[in-house]
Each structure stands twice: as structure tokens, then as C-alpha cells.
Design a protein that fits this description.
The protein is mostly helical and 138 residues long. Helices cover 83% and strands 0% of the residues. Helix 1 packs antiparallel against helix 4. The chain is globular and about 45 Å long.
Length: 138
């Protein structure tokens, strides 16, 4: 049986992805603005899908995805702020969507699960970033 959180995220995945792309390209984040729009759209879709998987398969799904992507993007010259911004925007968009669409009975549990997944992803991003900064394999 599909959880309500996963159902909400899955139903709104397109709008979450589209808004994430729009906000990343409208800001002053240099690397996102320089990225081919089609590539950025695919990357945002994959990030959103990782969040959806985390609602079904466990919080490590998003964290592991973020760590893998962070290693690549940092090696490509992206700055930590670029990566943090993408994660923060998705978190706000998802939080608002889940808060609006959840039933009253599951609201607290859905937001707690979302916060746990995003928190783990932020921790993984910080771990990879520190390893990158100090030249340590992560």
C-alpha cells in the first residue's frame, strides 16, 4: 500500500520539479544559470524522484542520491551554496505541498518523515562537501 506522503509527492512531482527549475534559474546561483535548461530539468526531476523514493524506501534514498550527485557537482566546480540552494528549495516546496495536501490525521507524521529525509540529505551533503574540501575520499 502506498503511503499518503509518497502519493502526495508523486502526484505533485511535476509541479515540484518545474518550480525547482524555475527558482534555480531565476536566482543568482551561477552554475545553475549556466547549465543547459534540459539538463537542469532532468537533474531536478531526478532529485524529486529521489525524495519520492525516500518516502517509500527509507530516508537514505535521498541522502545517498544527494551524496552521489554532490561528489560529481563539486568536482565540476559547483559550489556548496549551489547544491544547498537546490536542496533547500525542494524542501520548502515539498513541505508546503505536504502540509496542504495531507489529511489532518497524517500531517504530523508526513512532515516528520519529510524533515527526516531532508535532514539526512543535508548531513550527507555536508559530509561530502567537507571531504571534498579536505581532499578526503567520501
Amino acid at each position: 500500500m502506498e503511503s499518503e506522503l509518497r502519493r502526495i509527492l508523486r502526484q505533485h512531482s511535476r509541479s515540484l520539479t518545474d518550480e525547482l527549475v524555475a527558482q534555480l534559474t531565476s536566482g543568482s546561483t551561477s552554475h545553475h544559470r549556466k547549465t543547459d535548461p534540459r539538463v537542469l530539468s532532468v537533474r531536478c526531476r531526478l532529485l524529486t524522484e529521489a525524495l519520492i523514493r525516500s518516502a517509500h524506501q527509507g530516508t537514505e534514498q535521498l541522502g545517498d542520491f544527494v551524496a552521489t550527485v554532490a561528489r560529481r557537482r563539486l568536482a565540476e566546480g559547483f559550489e556548496l551554496a549551489d547544491l544547498q540552494r537546490a536542496l533547500r528549495i525542494l524542501e520548502v516546496l515539498a513541505w508546503r505541498t505536504v502540509a496542504r495536501e495531507s489529511t489532518l490525521d497524517s500531517l504530523a507524521a508526513n512532515l516528520a518523515a519529510l524533515n527526516t529525509a531532508m535532514g539526512y540529505a543535508r548531513d550527507e551533503l555536508a559530509r561530502v562537501s567537507l571531504a571534498h574540501a579536505y581532499g578526503v575520499a567520501s
